[in-house]
Amino acid sequence: MDAQLQSGVMLVGEALVDEFAEQPVAGGAPLNVARSLAALGLPALLVSRLGLQQRQLPGTGASGADAGARLVLASMRRFALSEQGLQFDAHHATGRVSVVEEGGSHAFLIHPQAAWDHLDELPAQALLHSQAPAVLYFGSLAQRAPASRLTIQGLLRTAKARGCLRYLDLNLREGQVSLDVIAESLAEADWLKLNDAELAQLQRCFGTGTLDPLQPAAQLQRPVAALLRRFGVQRLILTRGAAGYACFGADGTLLAEGPGRQDLTLVDTVGAGDAFSAMALAAHLRQLPLAQALNLANGYAAALCGQRGPVPESDPFFQPWREALGHAGAIAA
């Protein structure tokens, strides 16, 4: 897999444990997207940082992993993901998120001082140079602490210089990052993926007032154009729940849109946005037309909402989606 990552996606950020009431599961947006990409047959390399057991020394790697790290590693191995991008931390534990379910929605308590807050830039930069990915995926949460923020911003500058597509799945979490971090991230993104609530928040912070992100997509073109021009973003992919999705070009032009899925069987929505990003990126790398790519992403995210947790463990779930992507076309470099 590593030898052909130049055709795939490098994902940098948080790998953690989502603590549900019934059991803990491996999670974090970059890990969720990486697992879906791998299950869909696309090369993916996760760059993250996990904790070591107490009294373990740096360099002991996976053999000294703490309980949370072992859970993450087991899931990565289930999806045959490379561990080459993992770092191990002797002073900070693997990240944890306590998930509180309330009437079909979720509240998240993201615990501070996690291993992924302390990403080391040098090994990450070395991988970016050696692997030459087509896409660098990043978000905002992993930039809440100075060390990882500097690492990710450095990777983004390198990616830009190398012509690597920088895909920002903003994934705003209340109280985790400042407006400065959000603005820096937007300024380093080529493609931006938001949900409706995030678009409304960005409009309040950086636009000219409030807007209804669920109004007809054509009516969003002007405020979207102003937002994208301000930060130099080339494309915005907007998910809007039951209202469907829309995609806008750099000048705000509506490039594609589609309705929400009415046949949705809802178990939970954890990881739905990550699933949308994974399929959208997979279809892009398979060189599918934009409208087809986003329709697949919408269907895949809806199907995942009928499963428990951020990524299904059952291989038969992925088979029809691999077939829908097709295997005839070469992956774009």
TrEMBL record:
Residues that span the membrane, as ranges: none
Which part of the chain is the Carbohydrate kinase PfkB domain?
Answer: 25-311
Question: Where does the source fall among the domains of life?
Answer: Bacteria
The answer to keyword Ribonucleoprotein applying to this record is: no
Pfam families registered for this protein in UniProt = PfkB (PF00294)
Citing just one GO molecular function, the answer is:
kinase activity
Keywords attached to this entry: ATP-binding, Kinase, Nucleotide-binding, Transferase
Q: Which family does the record claim for this protein? A: Belongs to the carbohydrate kinase PfkB family.
This protein is called what? PfkB family carbohydrate kinase
Q: Which organism is it from?
A: Roseateles flavus
